């Protein structure tokens, strides 16, 4: 697909009119509107051309106030155009979903972002791509002094130029296009959670999870299933479904910033105990080893044990130093299998997302409000802290119904499928 080289005159006029009108009396006199910003910023010329192809999106964007736009640079879009993903840019619905995923509902400046992860809701609320109430989120964090936004499959986009103000909000120019989080199937496959996925299919609950909204899934690693391999072959379908449902929280998307000393009611009906203990985040006696894997229906946290709803391990989790360190698991006397159970017929992932692990310190830090402070000295002078929202206002725990099932649809290319 060839990007148009000019923004249509009528669209330019409409954008300018909508933005100038919305700023009346807002105290933003002298600040450029989005049309002027995109057309006058050399590194955003490709984005300017792309937005020009979608007048409905452009008009909606012009009418939104207090937003943060994560604007891919020319180099970022060129990388996308030269990848296998380029053909998907002919899918208008996908492109508009992708653009909406780059628009955050709320104004945040780089100085608001610290090591504590913030999960910012975006305008991606098309049920073909997101089943998270309030809009799919993107994770904002500061790593080694750089401001980063983490999206599907833990794609990291680093801010190359922060805090470019315009009349309705702020723009951060990023070096990689965000990745729309995939559905549960594609995400679990790429996260090498194929045993969990295969078990869900064997228990006939995979389709239920795929179509659900606002989920938190504590997904055992393949090694965790292998550790109880001697047991798995003896489980009935109902027993397996009961165990897996004990790993799912329905109606609450609990990101790492929400994990504290508390209990959560599972889809199975019983509670799991979340504990911050001895430098680890525990779910009963299991340890979270990889947090905040976004997917279309919510979030996945990888754990190192399979949870047992019939075990009393939740009451003793605070006394555990490291789950699995003594060779025990929640099922008692079991032995490891030579192969990972439930993986027959599951594809081997071409990419994995185990390299970017949310550290325990970041999860623990998030229990204490930061007030949006940190790192302002390295940011652009365009920052206006008086109009920015604090990190706390961004942390969303959506509940409620969204309607249609989440489908990754045409965006499956982006998950390496």
TrEMBL record:
Renumbered residue ranges of the record's region Disordered: 310-353, 366-391
InterPro entries named in the record: Adhesion/Biosynth-related, FAS1_dom_sf, FAS1_domain
PROSITE patterns: FAS1
GO cellular component: fungal-type vacuole membrane
Biased composition annotated in UniProt, kind: Low complexity: 310-325, 341-353, 378-391
Domain FAS1: 31-178, 180-307
SUPFAM superfamilies per record: FAS1 domain
Transmembrane intervals: none
Protein name (record): FAS1 domain-containing protein
